[in-house]
């Protein structure tokens, strides 16, 4: 018989045995020399090679076999400070955006948007004042790059410290003006969410900003209605059709 209190041992399923026998997935980024990668990105921020490298790094985070792989890739990027956000030097993020080359800027925007999807990624990005994102500098960016940066800011704006910084650099005013223009659905969703996050921040600056936008309650109400219309409009169209 079997020991008291114990029944017949259960046979493990084939799938369970396969999972236990499967070797741990090795992150490909561990085969890269991080200092060489950083040097390449710093030395050629406008190069086609930089765009391809940034794309490859992002894909290690987003196109992965498992969530554990994604987290390992993210930790490698952060621990090696690939974007130089912990360094006193100019960050690679700024270098690439200043390079004025569409491909590398696009891939940088996509990379930081991917990093911002993770709590640790947001902490890494907020470790250095990158938040102006050149959106407020009068710099003309392609729509696809701009919407990636807006999505990054929206994800970061869940933290109150980030909200305060964005409010101080005029992001609420900027996003209000942005929503006045025709935008893609992707950009509209993230811009509306960013505006709502900033509006919910209970600080004197938020109140003062609304007063400065226009000293009129009617204006604020119309702005809120526009935000709701942008968010709910597509759902009403679907229900009508």
Automatic annotation (TrEMBL):
<dbReference type="GO" id="GO:0036064">
    <property type="term" value="C:ciliary basal body"/>
</dbReference>
<protein>
    <submittedName>
        <fullName>RICTOR_M domain-containing protein</fullName>
    </submittedName>
</protein>
<dbReference type="GO" id="GO:0060271">
    <property type="term" value="P:cilium assembly"/>
</dbReference>
<dbReference type="GO" id="GO:0097542">
    <property type="term" value="C:ciliary tip"/>
</dbReference>
<dbReference type="GO" id="GO:0005814">
    <property type="term" value="C:centriole"/>
</dbReference>
<dbReference type="InterPro" id="IPR040369">
    <property type="entry name" value="ARMC9"/>
</dbReference>
<feature type="region of interest" description="Disordered">
    <location>
        <begin position="1"/>
        <end position="21"/>
    </location>
</feature>
